[in-house]
Amino acid sequence: MGEHIKKSSFSEEERKVFVQNLIDDIQALENMIDEGLIEDDIVRIGAEQEMCLVKDDYRPSPNSLDILKDVDDGHFTTEFAKYNIEANLDPYTLKKDCFTDMEQQLRKLLDKVKKSADKYNTKIVLTGILPTISKGELGMDFMTPIPRYYRINEILKTWRGDDFTLRIKGADELCLHHDSVLFEACNTSFQLHLQIPPDDFVKSYNWAQAISGPVLGICCNSPLLLGKELWRETRIALFQQSLDTRIWTKAVKEQVARVGFGESWQRDSVAEIFKKDISTHRILLTKPIKNNSLDLLRNGEIPKLEALSLFNSTVYRWNRPCYGVGNGKPHLRIENRYIPSGPTVIDEMANFAFWVGLMAGRPEKYDDMPSIMDFKMAKLNFIRAAMSGRHTVFSWLDKTMTVKKIIKEELLPIAYNGLRKCNVDEDDINRLLGIIEARTKNGTGAEWQIKNFRELKKQMKQDSAIVQLTKAMYNNQESEVPVHQWKPIGGMAKTKESFQWVRQIMSTKLMKLYEDDYANLAIAIMQWNNIHHIPVENGKGELVGLLTWSHIERFKKLDKKQARVSDIMVKNVITVEPRTEIEIARKMMKEHQIGCLPVCVDTHIVGIISKVDL
Fold first, then answer.
1. How many Cβ atoms sit within 10 Å of the Cβ of residue 202?
2. Given pLDDT bands bounded at 50, 70 and 90, which one contains residue 416?
3. How far apart are alpha carbons 610 and 614 in whole angstroms?
4. Rounded to an integer, what distance in angstroms lies between the CA atom of residue 60 and that of residue 106?
5. H-run or E-run covering 543
6. Residue 343: is the preceding peptide bond cis (ω within 30°)?
7. Helical (H) or strand (E) element with 355
8. pLDDT tens track for 195-229
9. What is the DSSP letter of 91?
10. How much of the chain is in helix, strand and coil states, percent to nearest 5?
């Protein structure tokens, strides 16, 4: 999320000054490009590692601020949610053993944060979406208490004018409203940075867009959200929808999402990409800026383009152009934002080497992407990859190719050539790209999660299956075996899980009746399915009653063909919440002499707990 804004007042006066600085930053950037001031004689790589914090029960642990204070290292920073932390790695020159050096630094940083986390009974998990995140951890009380995050949430909600709507369909379907941007916090990634010479930026950027689909397809690691099996890389849909301020109307309107792939190939300089984004998206954040970038340039100083950098950090392109200053020299880079965190450090480094190799090894025939590939096809390839992962079928230069075929025959040779061209150590090249090749044959992190989740659900309740899956992911990460070699969970020892909350043991696949249903149909449904209690909803989907066998027997003389469910249901229903303690639920059932308790969020039923569950 970039820098923390400590002194911003977010006032209208500040905004007015910020807008002028933003316009001047674009002009300053164009002047630096024209004058040859942008660094072009060296290529560096960098990365940002986002990670999840979990307690001993593998559920989110909201203590990032305590851990950051203990670790006391400038490489680490906060994220939107209290159960996420980000580590910013140092830049490395793209040559020789740069990937080994970066891998070693990443492991040292992870070891360091693990030691601090351990003091708070917390573990570190690398995954695109933490399977154990529940709706309960997506409320405002889990947002990191930093003004910038609250400001983003406040403005986006105002622009939206309504609750955010989430709808993702895969093998399962997830549909719900949410009242904050904290769903964005479900996403954790391994963001890759590659420095690009200014005269090659547009060619490189277009190539980065073209290869996004195949690269994502072999890196997927985010198939589950709130217990639902969705896309192979659910982050792509979730991130866009969790920050989507577009207003739904009855008119057909062209509206560009704040999170997205882009709308066309680039044909001019990097400044044109920034101009397009400023023209398309409203300014989300401002801050006071002391030194005007054009004034600094006139005085022979290199500006940081603070207004542009802040604005750019709030436009979420999957391939984001970036400007920065290092050692007093300005540079341009592409930030790859679509790669998920995990499954292991070695998997992440393989993903990194594959992408950098592809970027560095771009064949000459791909210098002019607009002439050889339709942009909509590149965009469609990306969406298909997010949905289907390794099983995607792509359109590539008028050919239909599977992920396995395109990577093996087209992209891996380019990546090998690109890394060799940069004089990367041959052992590193073979080690890292060998993992990509093996993954094309044996499967991705997303596939491993789905296969094992399905098997676990045959043996236990969904909540327990999610916990066991997360535990196995953590153990495999600690062993540092790449994901294509991970064994099925079935062969691993399972420890007894402690149950505390109703949501851990409740049944979520519910049959429901409506209050205007006829009683004879209700009785038949209960008999057919051998169930003793069934919730009753009104037309708004709100719980209004409960039908039980014991209650039905009191109405033996009633004409069931004429009577409605509302005539025979229990109307004063005793309910609990997902975070009600199991022991409290047990006492409530005993005290009221009832066999079940509907589990509700507000007026909506999300589960039911019975004596059998207890």
1. 23
2. very high
3. 7
4. 22
5. strand 543-548
6. yes
7. helix 345-360
8. 999 999 999 999 999 999 999 999 999 999 999 99
9. P
10. 45, 20, 35
Backbone angles phi, psi at 77, to 5 degrees: -150, 170
- 462-479 and 445-457 are packed helices; what angle lies between their axes, rounded to 10 degrees? 140
SS3 13: helix
The pLDDT-based confidence of 9 (bands split at 50, 70, 90) is low
Distance, in Å, from the CA atom of 414 to the CA atom of 418, rounded to the nearest integer, reads 6
pLDDT at 31 over 80: yes
User: DSSP assignment, residue 365?
Assistant: G
Q: How many angstroms separate the CA atoms of 124 and 351, rounded?
A: 20
β-bridge pairing 259-260 and 316-317 = parallel
Spatial contact of 323 and 32, defined as CB atoms under 8 Å apart: no
Q: Is the separation of the CB atoms in 219 and 211 below 8 Å?
A: no
pLDDT (average), residues 89-105: 98
- Sign of torsion over alpha carbons 376, 247, 80, 276: positive
Whether the pLDDT of residue 254 is over 70: the answer is: no
CB 31 within 8 A of CB 52: no
**φ, ψ at 84 (rounded to 5°):** -125, 150
H or E stretch covering 329: strand 329-336
Q: Quick one: angle between helices 235-242 and 375-388, nearest 10?
A: 110
- The answer to whether 141 and 181 are in contact (CB under 8 A) is no
Q: What ranges make up the beta strands (E) of 73-204?
A: 76-78, 84-88, 92-93, 123-125, 164-169, 173-178, 190-196
Sequence-distant (6+) residues with CB within 8 A of 231 are: 168, 170, 222, 223, 237, 386, 387, 388
Pick the closest to residue 384 from 186, 173, 220 (CA basis): 220
Rg of the Cα atoms in the chain: 27
The span from the CA of 332 to the CA of 193, in Å, is: 10
How many whole angstroms separate alpha carbon 247 and alpha carbon 160?
A: 6
End-to-end CA distance of the chain: 43
Vertex 509: Cα angle to 508 and 515 (nearest 5): 100
Residue 262, token pair as written in the block? 């882009």
- pLDDT at site 259: 87
Which amino acid belongs to residue 26?
I
- What percent of the chain has a predicted confidence (pLDDT) above 90? 74
**Distance between CA 253 and CA 474 in Å, rounded?**
45
